[in-house]
Amino acid sequence: MGSLMIDRRVAIIGAGTSGLAAAKSLIAEDYFCTIDVFEQRGSIGGLWNYTAAANEENHETNIPEDYAHVDIPQSFTLKNVISPIYEDLEANIPRTLMRYSDFPFPDDLQLLPQHHQILSYIQAYGQEVLDRVRMSMLVVQIKPEIEGWEIKSCSLATGTTTRERYGAVIIATGQYSVPWTPDLPGLREWTVSHPGTIIHSKCFRTAENFIKRRVIVVGSGVSGLDISSRILPLCNKLYLSSRRSPQLLEDFPVDLLANLRPPIARLCPDRRAVQFEDDTEATDVDCIIFCTGYLHSMPFLRKLEPNPIESGHKVNHTYQHLFYAPKPTLAFLALPRIIAFTVAEAQAAVVARVYAKRLQLPSIHEMQAWETPTSERTSERDPDARRFHHFQYPEDAEYIKMLIDWASRAEIRPGLDNNGKGRLPRPWGPHEHWQRARSFAIRRAFKEQGKDRVNVKTLEDLGFEGPITK
User: Fold this and answer.
1) Is the CB of residue 67 less than 8 Å from the CB of residue 453?
2) Which 8-state DSSP code applies to residue 195?
3) Which residue of 4, 254, 316, 327 lies most exposed, with the fewest beta carbons within 10 A?
4) Confidence at 390, pLDDT banded by 50, 70, 90
5) Which domain holds residue 255?
6) 469 in a structural domain
């Protein structure tokens, strides 16, 4: 298709991992007259800004929650912004893989960094674009216009409302605002009979809250496994409800396997019991923690048609999980659930080149047609599209390579870095592929070190010898 933009003003929504990468890529193009980053928090870093347990009572989630179109509260304040980070959370992949390609973590950090170390890393990375970030700014509405977009925002500090126009908008808000909890039989009745005994992992803060309790954890993704491992030594009994078959649980900690149960069939609040699909039962249940993920929710796009948000399990009308096909001057970063820093850089490189008119997109018809066969390929194993944006290895590596190759085909523009090619992330080499293929084993070996894991700085400290060590 032809060139997209007339106005060289670009807005980025969110100053986390992806938003900061987008700002740097746009600046590197030396093309745009205005690059504004809207951030609702008071600091950069996105979800890695930890919200303490003292605020947890202010952030109870709706149980069940299966509706993505959540309105912005009229009295929205910074207290409404809760992070899904819990007290002693650590990365689930090595910092040698979880990084921006041109900005390594300090070598003296543990191999899988703690959440506050990750926040410090992101904030250090974002220092050079701080002057572009508008803190405590809530985006209320993004409305399409004939040429570009109108953004209505509200200052959480002063209450002042502003309307501004941009040629393009990049959404980099992540997917950790609206927790998803399935509407299981008996769940609504349980929340009435036993208020406060069911939470989503977003509100989990510390395992000490579950001492001597009988606990059910629902979901065996990264959060489900990690939270279960932390609770297990302290609680009286733990049940881990998982849809995954035992053959797919090689990454499970051995001590959790004995506590594994199938999906929940129903809750029986009158007896504080939970029945599983194999007809076994957990009794005298004190707490249930849903580690079931999140819904995509973008209330500022409520009036956009066709709307990209339906069920909330995927973002519709996106080309390559990136551009809004009906009007591609709107882009979404970080929809794919893969290596966040690497994919943020690669996606940002593509978007910046397209908006700077160095790289063209296919026709709108071709972009709209891309989604149908992609959805059909995954429909049998994923009928409700919950995993449309989820990639496993090596799919994630192939997606990242595709993006970098795509960005590399941009028109050379004299004066830009890299001999006119512009800012471009470094492609993965053999060592990155080797780490990614072994990420579960690396994480398990790291956790097995117990408190001594703070002294584990390298893969070699865990006995892993890759094809390339530097």
Assistant:
1) no
2) T
3) 254
4) confident
5) 181-292
6) no
